[in-house]
Amino acid sequence: MAIIQIKRRTSSGTGPLLGSTGSIKAGEPLIDLNGGNLYVSKQDKTGSSGNPLAASDYIEFLSKPNAETLMNSKITALDLGTASKKNTGTTNGTIPLIGANGKLPNSVIPDISPVTSVNSKTGAVTITLTDLGGVATTTYNSHVSSNVHLTSEQRTRLDNIFNTTINYGTKTQEVTTLASFNNATLDSGLVLYSVFNSTYNPNKLTHFLGINKDKVLTPTSIIDGGTY
């Protein structure tokens, strides 16, 4: 029985017959015994220096190992996640698809019990303000200025808060900067003492303010002209 051996690479390297020497026929198969791939010539061609045989002259068929290596490299390059290895479906370990109705299949949606409102209504019902424990607008407006909606602690805190204003008379000099204020005041003219009281809620800070008696004239003050 005759044995047919197709053209094959026996020299070093990989790939089909390339370069300026050799010839191929259209449909001629070439097997690369080193690289493992099969090549089929696209056309009749004889290689020359001006028109050498090139890879584009062949249709390349990868061997199984080479095909697996190429596919794995492509998958790695795409950086696909674990979902790319899952099948679609509705069973455990599969990915469900949106149906023509724009929804997931009923089999993958958990059972939901009817919603019960505060007044024991079930199903698709209309919830009223009374059901939610609300009050009418007129009732709310009548209590806007009241503190009935506050807790006892909140009322105590508000009771310990006062609006305080320090006013000055028409003879008072008013300045517009802190530097002007410091230049116009008497050194150590006022004495300030502050007390922090944590027994109040919120905490209370009391300031005691007085005039330094050594900075003003009193009925017993002596004006001394000094000596020389």
Jot down its keywords.
228 residues, four-stranded mixed beta sheet, 4 helices, elongated
Question: Can you tell me about this structure?
Answer:
Among the domains are: 1-85, no CATH class; 185-215, no CATH class. It contains four helices and eight strands. It is elongated and about 145 Å long. A hairpin with a 5-residue loop joins strand 3 and strand 4. The relative contact order is 0.05. Strands 1-3-4-6 form a four-stranded mixed β-sheet, with no helix packed on it. A two-stranded antiparallel sheet has the order 2-5. Strands 7-8 form a two-stranded antiparallel ribbon. Helix content is 15%, strand content 15%.
Write a brief caption for the model.
The protein is an alpha+beta fold. It has 4 helices and 8 strands.
Oligomer state of the chains in this structure = single chain
Strand content range:
15-25%
Number of E-type strands: 8
Strands ordered across the widest β-sheet: 1-3-4-6
Overall body shape: elongated
Mean pLDDT rating: 83
Computed structural class: alpha+beta
Radius of gyration: 49 Å
What count of helical segments does DSSP give? 4
Amino- and carboxy-terminal Cα gap: 148 Å
Low-confidence stretches: none
